[in-house]
Amino acid sequence: MTIEKLHQCFLAHPKVCTDTRKIEGDCLFFALKGDNFNGNRYAAEALRKGASFAVVDEDDYAISDRYIVVDDVLEALQQLATFHRDYSTARVIALTGSNGKTTTKELIRAVLSRKYRVIATLGNLNNHIGVPLTLLSIAEDTEIAIIEMGANHRKEIETLCKVARPDFGYITNFGKAHLEGFGGVKGVIKGKSELYDYLMASGKSIFMNADDPIQFKKLNGYINKFGFSMDKKDFFRMSFLGADPFVKIEVEGQAVTSQLIGSYNFTNCAAAILIGKFFNVPWEDIKNAIASYVPQNNRSQILNKNSHRIILDAYNANPTSMVAALETFKKMEGTPKIAFLGDMFELGETAGIEHQAIVDFAASMQFQDVFLIGENFARTDSHLRSFTAFEQLSEYLMKNPVPKNSNLLIKGSRGMALERILEIL
């Protein structure tokens, strides 16, 4: 079946499912393959559960006219997404970076939704499957689609750009994330910059942090760029008024206070404000959107539980975000301060060095206590409390409860699932 005909089928059944556990009635089921599964085997089940058609790439499974046979299901999904993106009149904003992608995406969504009909990547569905699924959620009345793009190796962003064909783009930053796949910080810069490379090659509009020396150098001489800055006169000026603990920004003589902690969230807010201004969202709407956005999903959340004030930032972690979180925690008022730090993943050969650097930095903070959790942290040289496995930490805390009225930082990679500490508290 051609992509044009598949798109006509999609328009008649505009829901896509890739998991038989989440089948919605009247959807198209795409039988994707993975290292340990073959979606073709579940196509019949998808149809029994209510899917209208199943897209497969093995003829043996196509036993009725409710099966659509393609050469490769993943490629068909991506091609369908690109075709639908071109069919739609929505403008596409792509977003990538080492840290802050999801928070920035949600802030941009909050701002633009004040004036436009907007869709955005759900959660962190930002890979070669998630990006097509997001594009296919563009409805007839969608005016702007915000597409988050994640990557852990070179050429991945380039591929996602070919699928999404963005009209605009923004890179949050270049940090020490996925060093194993990118081959070091220089690889991270090259990999994330693939978004700007794509946009520049096609003359598209680029949003930028003009105070980031990497972005400033990369885009020097490119005309179709729009940036924010704290001191450069040729860009939209914003001032960082502080974070005690919530980020406060001054724009054109007016202040806006967010519900986001940490100075690192200044640029996330600034990007959303810049993009709101670019799309002519009224200032009061921009201000209210920034002020009312509340972080969720274990991302820099401030919680109060059993007399404790908790910063829960357990969605992900890398050396750059770990240092930023510790610095923010240090500046916060109140004592005692206790930090729970979980392993950082995907650091490759640099894992030992980077974990030791975090241990040394955390020790210099002079908190009342620091708990290190995970095999990487357990191998570091430190006087701090260390636990190879979460269960060991749990057992320790059951016998040695955290002092009442403590200020706690919980930070670690997603695989560590440190939000479980809340149950112990």
Q: What name does the CATH topology of the largest domain carry?
A: UDP-N-acetylmuramoyl-L-alanine:D-glutamate ligase
Please, what is the CATH homologous superfamily of the largest domain?
A: Mur-like, catalytic domain
Radius of gyration: 23 Å
Task: Please tell me the CATH architecture of the largest domain by its name.
Answer: 3-Layer(aba) Sandwich
Largest sheet: 7 strands, parallel
- Mean pLDDT, to the nearest integer, reads 93
Structural class: alpha/beta
Total count of domains: 3
Described by the principal axes of the CA atoms, the overall outline is: globular
- The percentage helix is 25-40%
First-residue to last-residue Cα separation = 56 Å
Low-confidence spans: none
Tally of DSSP helical segments: 17
CATH class group of the largest domain:
Alpha Beta
Number of strands: 20
Strand proportion = 15-25%
Placed side by side, the strands forming the largest sheet appear as 6-7-5-8-9-10-11
Q: What does this entry look like structurally?
A:
The protein has helices at 3-12, 43-48, 73-87, 101-112, 130-135, 156-164, 179-182, 185-192, 194-201, 213-218, 265-278, 283-292, 319-331, 351-364, 375-378, 390-399, 421-424; strands at residues 16-17, 28-30, 53-56, 67-69, 91-96, 118-120, 144-148, 168-171, 205-209, 225-229, 236-237, 239-243, 246-251, 254-261, 301-305, 308-313, 337-342, 369-373, 385-387, 407-411. By secondary structure, it is of the alpha/beta class. It folds into three domains: 3-70, MurE/MurF, N-terminal domain (Udp-n-acetylmuramoylalanyl-d-glutamate--2,6- Diaminopimelate Ligase, Chain: A, domain 1); 88-292, Mur-like, catalytic domain (UDP-N-acetylmuramoyl-L-alanine:D-glutamate ligase), CATH 3.40.1190.10; 301-424, Protein-Tyrosine Phosphatase, Chain A (Alpha-Beta Complex), CATH 3.90.190.20. The strands form four sheets. The chain has a seven-stranded parallel beta sheet, sandwiched between helices. Helix 1 packs across helix 3 (73-87) and helix 13 runs parallel beside helix 14. This is UDP-N-acetylmuramoyl-tripeptide--D-alanyl-D-alanine ligase. Its main location: cytoplasm. Belongs to the MurCDEF family. MurF subfamily.
